[in-house]
Design goal:
The complex is a heterodimer. Chain A is mostly beta strands. Chain A is built from no helices and twelve strands. Chain A is 0% helix and 52% strand. The model of chain A has no long low-confidence stretch (mean pLDDT 91). Classes of the chains: A mainly beta, B mainly beta.
């Protein structure tokens, strides 16, 4: 069973629009971490945020914000006032502590931000 | 700060040839992971090593092998290459010690093209 689901394959927005990338995860572990990674066209994977399963506090970092809700097993990512440089593939990932410290990625959401 | 170093960055091989990718983790990180990312796909976990011992195995073909050496660098050996092995291969490292955050630190990837 897929453990991390990113239902949005591609999203296209115009610069300055807000955009939310959805992530739903599945786990039986009580202790786990959730991550978001950005993969720009150059190919490298860039770490954006980590959340552990005991910390449901939402976080804001500049134009980025994350909404973690255990009740719905979701960890959504919002970019406010999007910019062309935000164009990339964004991956949500799950690390189950009982799973051998193996991080599982979602299929990714490709975000296009047009000027 | 030192990051994960992967070499070579680009590699072109013919079918049935052998390729070796190298990874130098962040100093004092005790765990190394290998991921394979095919075109348009999410990174797929191949194998991991903790303190030089294989700790977990994912969807790694039998034609592939990996090891971690005494200096903690790791090598991924791929034999009898097939066209489908063309992908971006990421190495990542993390620390499972006290205070471990579960965060993977990725290298920039090695792009393998099999002709």
């Amino acid at each position: 069973a897929q453990k991390v689901t990113q239902a949005q394959t591609e999203i296209s927005v115009v610069e300055k629009e807000d955009v939310t990338l959805d992530c739903v995860y599945e786990t039986r572990d009580t202790t786990y971490y959730l991550f978001w990674y950005k993969q720009p066209p150059s190919g490298e994977l860039v770490f954006l945020i980590r959340r552990n399963s005991f910390d449901e506090q939402n976080e804001i970092s500049g134009r980025y914000s994350w909404n973690f809700q255990k009740s719905t097993s979701s960890f959504n990512f919002t970019i406010t006032a999007s910019q062309v440089v935000d164009s990339a593939v964004y991956f949500c990932a799950l690390l189950e502590i009982g799973g051998g410290f193996k991080t599982i990625f979602g299929a990714g959401t490709r975000l296009f931000v047009k000027a | 700060a030192a990051g994960v170093i992967q070499s070579p960055r680009h590699l072109i091989k013919e079918k049935r040839e052998t390729a070796t990718l190298k990874c130098y983790p962040i100093p004092r990180h005790d765990t190394v992971y290998w991921y394979q990312q095919g075109p348009g796909q999410d990174p797929q976990f191949l194998i991991s090593f903790y303190e030089k011992m294989q700790s977990d195995k994912g969807s790694i073909p039998d034609r592939f092998s990996a090891q971690q050496f005494s200096d903690y660098h790791s090598e991924l050996n791929m034999s009898s290459l097939e066209l489908g092995d063309s992908a971006l291969y990421f190495c990542a490292s993390s620390s499972q010690g006290e205070g471990n955050t579960g965060e993977l630190f990725f290298g920039e990837g090695s792009r393998l093209t099999v002709l």
